[in-house]
Amino acid sequence: MNEQSPDQLRLCGYPSPGGSRIETDPIHHDYQVLQALRRVNHLIITEQDPCRLISRVCQALTGTLEYFNAWAILLDGSGTLRHTAFSGIGAAFEKMEEQLRRGEFPDCVREVMGGRHHLIVEDPSADCRQCPLSSCYSGRSGFSGVLACDDIVYGVLSVSVPKSFSRISREQEYFFELVRDIGYALHKIDEAGKLRLANDLLERSQAAAFIWKKRDAWPVEYVSGNTLELFGYPASDFRSGRVSFASLVHPEDLVLILKRAEKAFLDRSVTTVQHDDYRVMHADGGIRWIKDMTTIRRDWQGDYVKCESILLDITGNKMVEAELRKSREQFMLAVNGSNDGIWDWSLRDGTLYLSPQWKRMLGYSDDELPNEFSSFSDNIHPDDRASVTEYVARYLKGGIRQYRQEFRMKHKDGGCRWILARGEAVRDEHGIPFRMAGSHTDITERKASEEMLRARTLEFEHIFNNSHIGIMLLRGGRVCVRGNRRLAGILGYDSPDELAGIGMDRHHLSMERFEEFGKMHYEKLTEGEQFQVEYQLRRKDGSPVWCSLSGKALDPQDLDKGVIWVIDDLEKRKREEQLLRDANTMLEEATRNAEKASRAKSEFLANMSHELRTPLNGVIGMTGLLLDSGLTGEQKLLAETVDSSAMSLLQLIDDILDICKIEAKKLVLEIVDFDLADLVDEVAGGVACNAQQKGIGFAYSFGADVPLLLRGDPARLRQVLNNLAGNAVKFTERGEVVIRVELESCDAGTLRLLFSVMDTGIGISADKQRIIFDQFTQADSSTTRKYGGTGLGLSIVRQLVALMGGEIGLNSIEGSGSTFWFTAEFQMQQDQPV
User: Taking the CA of residue 495 as centre, how many other CA atoms within 13 Å lie in the half-sphere pointing to its CB?
Assistant: First the structure.
């Protein structure tokens, strides 16, 4: 084994080996070394693939020795990266691999490939800070060696080892001897591959040689010894004449061969026979395709004397051609049926094949775009042309491992399409590309979806960060991964970044409450349930805060994938709720007092109404007697005025009594049988006199399908109709008043009737219609002065209609009359005539 001298090490900036000892047990360590060497030697002997060899060597070194990690690279003949392998490094190697693919080798690789062969770096974390793997060597040393044999460099192997190894020559020699063995193994694998290739070419180039003399049967003068393999007959059978070559030629081909040979023999200027490929029958019954190269030997007079033929077995080629034709047909079917556009670029002559689908992708038919490079280059979007050109050039130079690029191309319609270009170059033995082929995929819709996704992501981020509600994502054992600004404010943190990594137990007032909360609610999360609870959390300063918590698991089967919590600050609401509870308590007390006062008022008014009604009835009765006592004209006029005033006062007292009963909820409908026709006739009879005195018409009508024998409260229905009909006559100076009754619906003996009272009076303005049914309200104060009234009638009517299960409304145009309508529910009498 070769050893670096102490002077060489000192020149490199490393201490002399100096005989330091390994801190672990030497015997155990030597056993580990022997075990590792045994595994590596086994791989060297058995593994025929160089890429698998270095991958398994790296695994063996880190799995058996005290090497912390190992990595290796393989290079091709031009020094371009071919393959990488690593063990014990993990994701950190990705950055190194990207650098290597760009042809940017670290210092350790450049030094050992530059003729140094072996390198020891005692402190890579300090001396190799630019290397992507420097952090993996913290507290360790690095050994690197070139994998080479007979001045051919195959790659580099590097390992990280305990720092003590950098001062122990034996450990260095173990590694460097291992590097030499692996380089030798790579060399043998390369040589074996070349030898296999030569043998394969020889096997595929089998040929038989024949020389025939010009005699009656054209006897064989010479035949090569490999006819048994080609034709199934030994050479002796051909020399003895037991087998004639002509007898082996396929009958369909023999006539043409003989005809062409005879023509060549007769033409004294011909010295070679150009046969088409033909078939011969093998002894096993199979068919062999033959390439026949025949030379005619002539004497000095030009007569043929013998034929020399080289018969090449091209059966394999024919099978390949057949498969190639089949593959080409399948390829063309795939090209024509695929949604991808296919392209094939010859780098030697610049020709470019573009499939019809490639052209259709840009809106052109097959004959609209020529198969030339400009059809591609001229249609690249101007903003992408430079980057596409640069990317293709880097790929062809070997700077990019895989050709895959996204860019825009111009469409015939004036727009553009996003294209995913994929391809691969075919290179010669020197690594120079001479052909490149691939496909174009239209990814316009995908790009639009990605753009939409980006926009939605930005929108989500904006909503997340600016939400007025706190949002938290928990993962892995209830630890906060992310929270928004609102959540940080609720929990008293200056920034959402402070929340990351904090366990949820820190936000509970005690560990007991934390555990209890988990027992109560986390089972709901595993069942996929979304729940909400009001709960006190702890702020950063330890103070409690009332919050609303709503949780939902991203995956109920695995809570470690994440739980979304929506958290809202309830402190203000809790204070407002307390104030509201206090206010409600006061309001309830005030309501009780008001209800007591209202009941007292209603009882007082009811009592007063009864007290007023008794003497008033006496006044009305005496006035009636007085009118019948033979008064003078003036006295009768005065008595009639008293009687009219008393009747108005009695109506007012009745209205007040009804209002009191309704407010006290003591007004109950009396359900009895009645005849609707008689009731409406009575109302009409009472109102028609007033209408006649004013000179206006009055009428009423029933729908043909309206039942007349009903069950309900006739008194309250009469009261409603009297009020509406009386108002209609009162506010109409000319024209007519009409009462109509129609059937709105009938269901299982329950009727819903529609009553309407139409007049041609003064009408009601639109702004007054919405308040016309309020108590003590009339459409116009001047109406009260002109027509009288207290404004209680319509309010009572509205509430009576509601008691009868209906509703009331009006349609009116000021100056053109009004139509008051209401609905009411009744039962049909059982003995209803048809």
Answer: 3
